[in-house]
TrEMBL record:
Keywords: Membrane, Transmembrane, Transmembrane helix
Highest taxon of the lineage: Bacteria
Transmembrane segments: 30-52, 73-93, 99-118, 139-159
Presence of the UniProt keyword Calcium in the record: no
Name of the protein described by the UniProt record: DUF6644 domain-containing protein
Residues of the DUF6644 domain: 29-160
Provenance organism: Pararhizobium capsulatum DSM 1112
Amino acid sequence: MLNSLLMLLQGSALGDMVRNAQYLYPVLEAIHILGIALLVGPAFAFDLRLLGVANRVVSVPTAARHLLPVSHVGLAIAFVTGIVLLSAQATVVANTGAAPWKLGLLILAGLNVPIFHYGVYRQVDEWAEAAVTPIAARAAAVVSMVAWIGVILSGRLLAYT
């Protein structure tokens, strides 16, 4: 079923346009990288706050309120441009050695968000000003950082594996 969806995407007018327009693919790549930067930069700043590495002057809820909406915009940009880029060679990309890693790490990063927000973050008022955040918050931060570094690395390896 996944292969059928990939073939449908690759054979679509979108895939044809991305493959054949002279500068569309590199422009989309540039926008995709911008999306990743907007996603991962603020997410890492928030993760570092959870780990106690970043400035503790800003409370965790304040950091979340200012950083995470920027990450959401980056996620939207990276998701849309990623699908459009995938349309150019969906079956080729899916058969690379890095593709299962990227998909698995994207799933891990995606699952980490609700686990954090519906888990330890529900009691953030109890530990928002604490010098050391709960172990579950720090674990979520580490999972987030490792997953996103892995997504970026495996994304780069798609072209070489």
